[in-house]
Task: inverse folding
RNA sequence: GGCCCCAUCGUCUAGUGGUUAGGACAUCGGCCUCUCACGCCGAGAACAGCAGUUCAAAUCUGCUUGGGGUCACCA
């Protein structure tokens, strides 16, 4: 056990994407490694973009990935509520405290005032960024008008911290402005809401994406004004699209749930995400337990990583093959069902069929596609395959093969291979001469597992029937 | 543009002053082979540039260049 408290605080404005998932993962790994607590908090203060479906997508994604949270929505905890919109009174109270202490003030400037100031600033042709001019900074009256609460930011000195992954970072305070803490409707802006929540939820390590390093100085200023301990920070490099742009839907599947639908294994997703920006020597494939055992902030890279679909698929395939056939059968069931194949959960042919395609499939969706023909009464016949291999010349050989194979006992791959081998020798034929026609007859396709394992899993009755049917089709029947 | 961060094969990375700069994915050959995969063997492929420190620099320093982030009553 340790007193480490980390959190993942997504905004429900879309689906949980892989960048967010990686942030969640690293926090979770650290909590699990050191025996700390992993807290989930929903930052839903953007009333306009926030949706209930997104909240659900976050829960579903986290659960699918197996990133369980110790405190947060659904599970509760001592520092709730865990939705920011349910914590408005807490923010207001903290804002009042800052005003009383002189660290913040009410600002009555309207959006129009600000827009005009901004326009004037830009018209002046300066290269400096626009900053709030401080109109209400020294104001003493309290008009009966809407106001926002602004932070009284220092104008000299600098604010810095030792980032757990990036090292020492210092930012001059004159880069700050009197940023807004509370909007006129009482809803906090990101920096204030996050800090108040992190303080009240006793978060002592904040790990998030690199895009938040600019938020860190103002947040530290708030911690100090509040008189609370500043937590440790860890900023993780971003995940970029292959072309170096910010990763978006245009470049790849970015939603975690899309990977679930595509038949990826959650552990594979975690493995790929972890290795993008973190390393442990030369090791590429990690189980969940290994990730937890080896994860360390110091081993995180400093360079933004580009998303690589091929490597992702490779990692996925490695994880798929690491599972035993029975487990894979259970996992593949929903994908079989999606293809209209009703296979009983305990059908012994399923693990056997899966064993034959394990080295050929990468995802569970592949598995379902590849074992499809085992479970259909009549395999779907590929038109090109039929045209090329189920030709009249194949008919006698398919017929003969059906007879040769018929009655083989035990009906297993080694016995079948021996028996067929003897027949081929007697006929002065080579397996090449019959293999493709037989494959098409048995599976409907030109690519499949080996013939004998196919026959074994199919069983004698189906094997013979399909070979006979192939013979008939070769002659142009049916 | 201001501020901040970053820089090793195409990509993810190992490397913390002395290495033939290693691994993985991808790519290209070859082997295996009833197809497709798997597997195995092999090849090409990188320290952004320029100064400096040092006996010695991918490793330390500076500059340049390039890339990224961010500049809201979004998060």
Result:
């Amino acid at each position: 056990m340790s007193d480490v408290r980390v959190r993942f605080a997504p905004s429900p404005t879309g689906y949980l994407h892989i960048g967010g998932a990686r942030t969640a993962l690293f926090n979770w790994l650290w909590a699990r490694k050191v025996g700390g607590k992993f807290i989930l908090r929903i930052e839903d203060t953007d009333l306009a973009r926030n949706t209930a479906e997104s909240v659900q997508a976050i829960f579903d994604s986290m659960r699918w990935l197996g990133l369980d949270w110790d405190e947060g929505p659904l599970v509760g905890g001592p520092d709730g509520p865990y939705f920011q919109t349910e914590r408005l009174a807490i923010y207001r109270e903290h804002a009042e405290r800052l005003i009383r202490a002189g660290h913040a003030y009410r600002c009555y400037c309207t959006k129009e005032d600000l827009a005009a100031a901004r326009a004037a600033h830009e018209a002046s042709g300066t290269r400096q960024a626009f900053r709030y001019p401080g109109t209400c900074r020294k104001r003493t009256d309290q008009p009966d008008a809407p106001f926002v609460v602004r932070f009284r930011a220092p104008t000299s000195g600098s604010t810095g911290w030792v980032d757990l992954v990036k090292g020492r970072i210092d930012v001059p305070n004159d880069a700050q402005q009197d940023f807004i803490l509370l909007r006129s409707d009482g809803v906090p802006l990101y920096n204030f809401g996050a800090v108040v929540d992190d303080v009240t939820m006793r978060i002592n390590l904040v790990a998030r994406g690199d895009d938040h390093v600019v938020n860190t100085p103002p947040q530290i200023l708030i911690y100090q004004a509040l008189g609370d301990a500043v937590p440790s920070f860890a900023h993780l490099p971003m995940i970029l699209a292959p072309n170096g742009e910010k990763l978006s839907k245009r470049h790849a599947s970015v939603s975690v749930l899309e990977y679930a639908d595509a038949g990826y294994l959650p552990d594979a997703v975690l493995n790929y995400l972890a290795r993008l920006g973190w390393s442990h020597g030369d090791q590429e494939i990690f189980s969940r337990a290994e990730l937890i055992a080896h994860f360390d902030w110091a081993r995180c890279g400093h360079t933004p990583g580009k998303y690589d679909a091929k490597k992702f698929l490779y990692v996925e395939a490695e994880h798929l093959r690491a599972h035993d056939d029975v487990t894979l059968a259970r996992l593949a069931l929903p994908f079989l069902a999606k293809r209209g194949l009703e296979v009983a959960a305990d059908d012994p042919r399923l693990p056997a069929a899966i064993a034959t395609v394990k080295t050929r499939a990468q995802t569970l969706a592949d598995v379902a596609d590849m074992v499809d023909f085992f479970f259909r009464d009549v395999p779907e016949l590929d038109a090109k395959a039929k045209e090329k291999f189920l030709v009249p010349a194949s008919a006698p050989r398919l017929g003969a093969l059906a007879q040769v194979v018929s009655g083989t006992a035990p009906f297993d791959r080694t016995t079948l291979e021996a028996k067929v081998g003897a027949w081929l020798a007697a006929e002065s034929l080579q397996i090449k001469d019959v293999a493709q026609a037989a494959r098409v007859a048995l599976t409907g396709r030109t690519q499949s597992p080996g013939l004998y394992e196919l026959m074994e899993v199919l069983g004698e009755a189906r094997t013979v029937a399909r070979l006979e049917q192939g013979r008939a089709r070769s002659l142009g029947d049916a």
